[in-house]
Amino acid sequence: MFPRARSRGLASGSGTGTGTGSGREIRASLVNRRDILQAAGVAGGLCVLPMFSLEAAPLKYRLEPVEIAAGAWMLVGVDEAITRENGGAIANITILDTSEGAVVVDTGPSKRYGMQLADIARALTGKPVVRAYITHFHPDHVFGSQAFGAKALAAPAGVVEGLKRSGDDFASAMYYLAGDWMRGTEVVLPERILETGYEDIGERRLRTLVLGGHTDSDLALFDERSGLLIAGDLAFLDRAPTTPHADLALWQASLATLSGISFSKLVPGHGPAESTPRALRQTADWLKSIEDVIRSAFDRGLDMSEAMGEPLPSWSENIALARYEFERSVMHFYPKLEADLWPRVDR
User: Which of 23, 184, 198, 339 would be a feasible disulfide site paired with 10, CB 3.0-4.6 Å?
Assistant: First the structure.
């Protein structure tokens, strides 16, 4: 197994495509782009600056809820990396109806997305959102939280710590990648801290599972009423998993835990919802495959660029972004292998 993952500067979130470099360096190179975009919002329209121009993004995300169970819907993320075309809307979001109000799982990539999510949840359920669960701290899942406020947000302590540690750097990277979609977006820290156990909201009993592996703290939710298992980014389906903060051994253990739950349908963080455990098996197979390929390349003395060209298993040909995410995983894991397995020359 690879050594336990260690964070090195700004490691990108799901699909951000910023696998290397320091978040502070990115912020400096952007000439405080976030503040510029915020200022542009005062005047509206096109803001022309000496160094670059900023074009106003479309006013709305194209969000179409799909019913996945009685009183439960999913907003399907696109199988792409974060771009200015998709505004970062690449993650799946779940909406649940309860007698106490609407519940959402993850809040999307921006304040603008979160506000649309709040409107959709109210339209579907006839009630405002009373709880917004955050499955992990990657930006495509968390930056819509302003629409709900800190008191409505619930997450494990490790997710909150991750946001404290990396939230501002993620915000700067997202402003760079998604541009005007991010206008007004700021980090909001959840006030409700979750542990493994149960939460009753209206007639729904939600089992909260605090796990890890995709990041150092990942939340999964099991709705006992509908049988929905909402796995967050612990599970990907037909889209290659991202690994900037991954601990592969811990991730595999979490997948084994989720495999022991008898669910009616599984909602992955990315990819379609299905009534089979295919997402859990496919994610486990992908993690094992890239671990074997990367470790073999390292042991054979290949450099990083050579390792990126190594062949992937034939079954991955139908996995979206397979080569792209494999190359990013090489960038994430090669420095860890070098740090842990090469001798220190300064000792």
Answer: 23
Say yes or no: domain 23-236+250-275 is CATH 1.10.472.10: no
Candidates 232, 275, 273, 276; CA nearest to 254 is: 232
- The Cα–Cα gap between 100 and 312 comes to 48
Please report, for the chain, the start and end positions of each structural domain, with discontinuous segments joined by +.
Answer: 23-236+250-275
pTM: 0.85
CB proximity list for 191: less than 8 A, separation 6 or greater: 150, 151, 153
CB 140 within 8 A of CB 90: yes
What DSSP designation does 192 have?
Answer: E
**68-95 per-position pLDDT tens digit:** 999 999 999 999 999 999 999 999 999 9
Strand-pair partners of 104: 95, 132
Q: What is the pLDDT of residues 198-243, one digit of tens each?
A: 999 999 999 999 999 999 999 999 999 999 999 999 999 999 999 9
For residue 159, what are its two tokens? 């997710």
